[in-house]
Design goal:
By secondary structure, this protein is mainly alpha-helical. The chain has 2 domains: about 90 residues, no CATH class; about 110 residues, no CATH class. Helices cover about 70% and strands about 0% of the residues. The chain is built from 11 helices and no strands. The longest helix is centred in the C-terminal third of the chain and has 19 residues. The protein is elongated and about 65 Å long.
Length: about 220
């Protein structure tokens, strides 16, 4: 693993644990892993803006940024240990909890539609779609939600959807639509979506009705 990445993660942990409890610390680290690893330390302001909601009081971004910059130039022996084991435990807990929940009938209808759309794609189109989806998901989902939705797309397992509310799944469906438009163009995308929705409504009118909450 890139040594600079590890040092940045240790520096973030060293500084932010003064402000955040373990649960929020894990969330802050997940945002770093999903969106900021590999970026230069100077990009830390963008990172702090993204995690601003984790702080109970208004965050003094300037003070925290200064502290992080100070810590980043220290010897590595002065930093807290790498928090990766804590992060891995949290991710393992999250993964095991996925399978405790069952998707609702509404979520199953959405899953049927997404599966139908993906089946229409050729192998080359699917590869491009997954690349586009990774970019779009990274803009809209954080805190482990990105990982769950990425796992859903890879596994085609609707249990991953059970962790999300309607609003998040509406966002997810929008992401899929945007990615399809990027890869296939708007005209073909509308044809695909229209025929997939029509097919579901023909085969199962109740499932077709349930789709309305996501479209």
């Amino acid at each position: 693993m890139d040594q600079q990445h590890v040092l940045q993660r240790r520096a973030i942990y060293t500084v932010l644990q003064e402000w955040l409890d373990e649960e929020k610390m894990v969330e802050a680290l997940l945002v770093f892993e999903e969106h900021h690893k590999g970026k230069p330390s100077i990009a830390i302001h963008e990172y702090l803006t993204r995690i601003n909601h984790l702080f109970e009081q208004t965050m003094d971004t300037r003070q925290i940024r200064r502290r992080l910059m100070e810590v980043l130039v220290r010897r590595s022996s002065d930093l807290a240990p790498d928090p990766m084991p804590m992060l891995q435990r949290a991710q393992a807990r999250s993964a095991s909890e996925v399978f405790d929940l069952q998707p609702s009938a509404d979520q199953m209808a959405l899953h049927t539609l997404i599966s139908e759309l993906m089946r229409k794609a050729s192998a080359g189109q699917r590869k491009q779609l997954h690349e586009q989806l990774a970019k779009q998901l990274a803009k809209r989902f954080v805190n482990g939600s990105y990982d769950l939705l990425a796992q859903y797309l890879i596994s085609d397992n609707p249990q991953y959807l059970a962790r999300f509310d309607d609003r998040a799944l509406q966002d997810f469906f929008t992401v899929i639509y945007v990615a399809c438009c990027e890869v296939l163009g708007p005209v073909m995308t509308d044809q695909w979506f229209g025929s997939a929705v029509f097919q579901i409504r023909q085969n199962n009118s109740a499932a077709g009705e349930r789709l309305n909450r996501y479209l």
